Amino acid sequence: MAHVIGHRGAPRRAPENTLESFRAAAALGADGVELDVRRTRDGRLAVHHDAHLADGRAIVETPWSALPDEVPDLAAALDACAGLDLVNVEIKNWPTDVDFDETAALADAVVEVLASRPAAERARLLVSCFHLPTLDRVRNLDPGLATGWLVFGPLPGGPGDDPVAALVAEAADHGHGALHPHHSAVTPELVAAAHEAGVAVNTWTCNEPDRIRWLAEVGVDGVVTDVPDVALAALGRAPAA
């Protein structure tokens, strides 16, 4: 059964990456949520997708006290997700972003917060990132944390290379238990290869019922979606009232 994972909560019901949005996803019956983490100027962990606020200020150049009230920190977001089966914490650290840190120190801060959570809660946490060295750092700091490598899809290799096999092998070789490809890149072959290597496949971000059903049919482990209620209905699981 594919897990239904609310993308930044339930953004069609409440502003994304807010406590209200996470609670809305839970109320709809989502199995889990995905959220994004960036660092502030004073080292706090802000749950926010973009590197800049709506008014143009870069989060990395803004102290926590000056952020909008609706931006939660990671600990508060985790508290709001109590009771969900899965919380996917995406670390935002990419070379073209204004807050990119090649030392991946953000990973240390995230792992520290996650390490402070109760053991039962830690078992349902999953850390993801597009930047493989940052994700590797999470894995090295705390091998007990589940990790998933975010990708758009297999990249073409040289002559004779199998891009699907290469992608799965890289994830597995780095010790990451999940791949997170964009849903447009998911194929039955990718899912089968990943599962054969012991790697789960959680795909993002799909809102179309027919596509969600197809993704479940080919065996993906989780579907990240802006519309958890639509996804649940597509999979024959009635959303919560």
Describe the structure.
Helices cover about 30% and strands about 20% of the residues. It contains 9 helices and 9 strands. An 8-stranded parallel barrel has the order 1-2-4-5-6-7-8-9, surrounded by 8 helices. Helix 6 (about 165-175) runs parallel beside helix 7 and helix 8 (about 210-215) crosses helix 9. The radius of gyration is 17 Å and the shape is globular. It starts with a strand and ends in a 7-residue tail after the last helix. The mean pLDDT is about 95.
In whole angstroms, how far apart are the ends? 21 Å
Under the CATH scheme, which class?
Answer: Alpha Beta
Order of helices and strands: EHEEHEHHEHEHEHEHEH
Total domain count:
1
- Second-tier CATH architecture: Alpha-Beta Barrel
- Computed CA radius of gyration, to the nearest angstrom: 17 Å
**Poorly predicted ranges:** none
What would you call the shape? globular
Count of helical stretches: 9
CATH superfamily: Phosphatidylinositol (PI) phosphodiesterase
Helix content: 25-40%
CATH T-level topology: TIM Barrel
Instruction: Briefly note the structural class of the backbone.
Output: alpha/beta
Strand line-up across the major sheet: 1-2-4-5-6-7-8-9
Mean pLDDT: 96
